Structures are given as structure tokens and as C-alpha cells.
Amino acid sequence: MTLLSTQTGGLNPSYHCEEGFPELLEKIHMEAGWDFRHYKKPSLKRRISLRLNAHNISSYNDYHSVLESTPQEYGSLFSTITIKVSEFFRDPEVFDLLRELITPFFSSGEGLRAWSCACARGEEAYSLGILLADSLGEERLGNVRIFATDIDEGAIDIARKGVYREEYLQNVSYWSRNKYFIRSDGGYKVKYGIRNLVKFGRIDIVKDAPISKVDIVLCRNLLIYFEKELQGRVLDKLDFALKPGGILVLGGAEALHPSLAYRYKEVREKSRVYRKVS
Questions:
Q1: Contact present, 162 and 122 (Cβ < 8 Å)
Q2: Which one, out of 130, 182, 225, 244, has a CA that is 20 to 30 A from the CA of 65?
Q3: End-to-end CA distance of the chain, in Å?
Q4: Predicted local confidence at residue 144, as pLDDT
Q5: How confident is the model at residue 179 (pLDDT cuts 50, 70, 90)?
Q6: Gap between the Cα atoms of 119 and 220, Å rounded
């Protein structure tokens, strides 16, 4: 997922004066189009503090001046705020549960549409493709489409190439590596049959319209970085995207907003895998 990291080095963010922080978020939104105004402030401040430390400054007002004099700093800021944390079949028990659900409830004859929201470098989307190939059979994937989106174009470019270092495949069995990957450039490249299932694109879920009419939505470990009001707005978009009877997968520390809880049933207690019942 594309996440706000909670790890920093250098000065504690509390060192920096609070003055100018709201204005800085407004400036980033107006100048670069990235809306971080309703992200949780402690994580956001920890990341931005790295850029202040890099310029040997201690105030957000000073950083305003850096952004004005050095426009390329926006790129460095964006890379610092967003960090990609994922691997193939991350949290294997979630994919094991999905494997149980997919075959009984979804018919390849009717087609299947899935959406990996905040897909980072594509590991989750390709993991779902491999799971579907195993569950339905590769010959029955003609009507299967996986949409994978992220705010970061650079991450999407990497995802489209589909080449990963070996450590990202630690949850992939030897059998699956041989079947769905080929050795490439010192790593492993996802074979075309799986890559062809996935359509990558840029969506900022905070402000852009969602994918629609999907059977499975995975949005894991993103909502924890949003304030409550923004969590609710994003969950409304995910709810809009999902067909009745579809599956919503959240992160282990995330939960449905109370306004949507009546429309979903958790498939297994504490799994954070939900079925939309209305």
C-alpha cells in the first residue's frame, strides 16, 4: 500500500513550531494538488519533519520559502510523505479466506471485477490475480479484471513492469514461483498471463471518483492514516464501488464506519473481510 510511514530519523517533530503547518498543507494542496489536510497529523508531521531536517530549518514557515524557491522540492516531499509497504500475499490468512470465498460465490461465466485501492507497487493486485488463477483455473479468466490504483505514478510504473526482488516473494510458494514468475534482472517477473489481468491507473481516493461495479475491493492499511471524517468519506466511495454481495477487505487495524456497519457482515470474526449484504 501507499502509506504514511511512522518511522523517522533526526529531530523529533515536536521540535518544530506548530505555526504555519495548516497553511503548509493548504499550499501543498493548491500548488501540487495533493490533499493531506485530513490525514492524521502526528504521522504527517513526522514525515514533513524529515524535509525540514534535510534543509536544516525548524519552522514550517521556512519550508514555505523552500517550496517557493525550489519547486522540485515538491517531488522530494511527496516521496517522503508516501511510502510503499507491501509484499506478495501480505497477511496470508486474508488471502486464504478470500480463496475460500471466491469459488462458491463468483462465477467466471458472469465475470469478476476486483479493485486494489492504494496498490503501491502492485504486489497485492498480482497476488489476487494468482489466487484467482488458482481458484478458477487460468483458462477461465477471460472475464476477470483487476483494477489497481494508487496516488503515486512512479509506483504504478513499477507495478506495470511487474519485476520484484526475491524478498518480496517470501509468502509465494516454490510451486507458484515456477508457475507464475520468470527470473528477470536479478529478480522475478510476473508472467504475462497474470499481468494481463491487471489494469493499473492513478486514482487519488481522497478526491477522485472510485471504480464502479466491482465484486471485490481491497483497501488495506490506508484508512489508519486518515482522520475519522476522511475515513468515512473514503469508505462511502468504496461502498459505492462494491456490488451487493461483494467482498470488502480492510486492514487488520481498520473497521467500517458506523454509518455503513448495518450494510456489511464480517465473514469471520476479526478478519476485516466483509460481505456487503444490502
A1: yes
A2: 225
A3: 28
A4: 92
A5: very high
A6: 9
Q: Tell me the residue ranges of DSSP E strands in the chain.
A: 2-4, 82-84, 112-117, 144-150, 163-164, 181-184, 187-190, 198-202, 214-219, 242-250, 264-266, 273-276
- Written as nine digits, the cell of 66 is 523552500
Interatomic CA distance for residues 18 and 103, integer angstroms: 53
Q: Which residue has the cell 460465490?
A: 105
Task: Please state at what angle helix 41-54 crosses helix 60-69, rounded to 10 degrees.
Answer: 60
Q: Which helix (H) or strand (E) holds 168?
A: none
CA distances from 153 to 105, 122, 137, 217 (A): 34, 12, 32, 21
C-alpha grid cell, residue 254: 481498520
Mean pLDDT in residue range 170-187: 93
- The answer to whether residues 151 and 204 touch, using CB atoms and an 8 Å cutoff, is yes
pLDDT (tens digit, 9 = 90+) per residue, 97-115?
999 998 777 765 678 999 9
